[in-house]
Amino acid sequence: MRDVQKKLNLQSDELGSDCNCSKKCFERVPEATRRTIIKNFNLMESVNEQNSYLCGLISVLSIQRRRSRNDEAEANFGEASYSYMVRLLVDGLAKEEKICKTAFMSIHGIKRKKDEYLVSSLKATGNAPKDKRGKHQNHPSKLSDECLEAVSKHIKSFKSRTISLRHER
Questions:
Q1: Beta-bridge partners for 83
Q2: What is the pLDDT of residues 19-68, one digit of tens each?
């Protein structure tokens, strides 16, 4: 049941609305291509695969012009800028088209928090984040075969009940 739920969660992303920006991103990316992108994105096997794909489409750029600021917290806010792109098939050739952040999130069906998570990982490590769910080390070590056999033998030593199949009238 958990595997089915995981698969449903992976495949639940939907196309968002038009970005309505001045770059006309949705006009540059045809609707058929948008549908293919979201379909292929939903068919990816794991969250790690989806994260790697998305991080491959995000570029971290250094800031070219800095303004002096008094507050250090504000100065750290703009440590980098990001460019987003989408891969298109044009005349049988793969082409990368730059689009805005809103269109990127809309085409891939992701939310703002997911984008922030990917961007922060790219900024910190330069790599796509890895899904760490279920990877903790705080569970007890596996029992030895001898111990499992002793437990099984002990359980089998209990007196069992017999069930009567007769029906009384």
A1: 59
A2: 788 888 888 888 888 888 888 888 888 889 999 999 999 988 887 776 66
Contact 115, 44 (CB under 8 A): no
Q: Where are the domains of the chain?
A: 2-125
Give strand pairing partners of 61: 81
CA proximity to 58, closest of 126, 111, 113: 126
The model's pTM: 0.65
Cα separation, 119 vs 97, whole angstroms: 19
Torsion of CA 37, 97, 77, 69, to 10 degrees: -160
